[in-house]
Amino acid sequence: SCANTPGSFSCLCPPGMEGNGFHCRDVNECDQNSTLPHNCSAQAFCFNTNGSYFCQCQDGYQGDGFICSDIDECQVATTCLKNMTCSNLLGSYACSCTMGLEYSEGTCVSEDVCRNASSNCHPLAECVHHQGSFYCHCVDGYVGSGTDCSDVNECSQSINKLCPAFSHCLNTNGSYMCDCWTGFQNNGTHCQDIDECETGNFTCPVNGSCANHEGSYNCTCDPGFSNNGSLCSDIDECSLGLVQCPNFSHCINTVGSSFCECWEGYQGNSSICEDINECLYNLSCPEYSMCVNSNGSYLCLCDNGFSQMNDLSTCNHFFLFFSCLFEVEITITLDKPETLTEYFSTCANSQHLSTEGF
After folding, report:
1. Which residues form the EGF-like domain (predicted)?
2. CA–CA dist 120, 135 (Å, integer)
């Protein structure tokens, strides 16, 4: 609303609103910390509206919401059933059976009804009061007339599966139980696979590995091994021709594997073997010789004018080999006209050679 003032004016928010007059917003009077608290009765509910609120008495009370008084339900004869006494309470009421009777399913019946009838019910049935009389009802897990009760096989009669996946349903007297399959365990809500490989509850042969799968496990031989019944035997890749080694090499089998080894005099890797030039590594050939490389080996060849001795470790000059001292012995025989001439030589290496004609 607009209020005139000397030389000016002011704007005021209407009741139930707050603001500067130009902008007004609703005040929730029903809020516990409201700036404009409501005036509803303690036995009433407050309902906020735009710019206002209203009060409504709670159930069991009557009034305009600002003043609420208790309703005496017991003044209405039909509030409680026959054989019951009505007791008024603030905002409510209570019904209780008269002396000698007990409450059962909305009515009061004699305490002796089921007590006298218990012998008529099956041991697995219970007596139920009903409209001043009784009937026998089989307990949960059993079915029948009440005078005759038999076990219910929940496992065979259940439309929906009672047990979780990977489990058996086992019927019991009056109930059932779920038992997880071998290789599974109950975690409280379902049957969970047991990882035997992780728990160590497995038996695999030497050189074999455990592989878990749902409900069990199996053993697989490690690379380089093959299954031989209950064992993992080494695969001889060399004899089976499974390994292609390069030229100038041979295959060597090992436990679970194999490798290629270059022949003596060769070097390389699994893809190539090359000749080693031993002459480049200062090998000790004898004096007066030269080193000549060959495939996989080398030779020491004596220089011209030198010859290799029997032990193949030295080269000697021809002069030393054939330097001999010659002696001539002339014998004249008196009874023969001819002359016999023999030549003897003694070599410098202490070998005695006798050659005719020299």
Report:
1. 1-25, 26-69, 70-109, 110-150, 151-192, 193-233, 234-274, 275-316
2. 9
Same-domain status, 226 and 173: yes
Which residue range forms the structural domain that includes residue 64? Answer: 2-70
Domain boundary among 70, 95, 113: 70
Question: Residue 157 belongs to what H/E stretch?
Answer: helix 154-157
Query: Residue 35 CA to chain centroid, in angstroms?
Result: 61
Report yes or no: 137 and 125 within 8 Å, Cβ to Cβ: yes
Is residue 338 domain-shared with residue 355, that is, in the same domain? yes
The residue among 70, 72, 17 whose CA lies nearest residue 41 is: 70
Against a cut of 0.70, is the pTM above it?
no
In tens digits, the chain (358 residues) has pLDDT values of 787 888 788 888 888 888 888 888 889 999 988 888 899 999 999 999 988 999 999 999 999 999 999 999 999 888 887 777 888 999 898 888 776 565 555 566 666 666 666 567 888 888 876 655 677 889 999 998 888 899 999 888 765 678 889 999 999 999 999 999 999 999 888 999 999 999 999 999 999 999 999 999 999 999 999 988 889 999 999 999 999 999 999 999 999 999 999 999 999 877 899 998 988 886 778 888 888 988 888 888 898 888 877 766 788 876 544 444 444 444 444 444 444 444 444 444 433 343 343 3
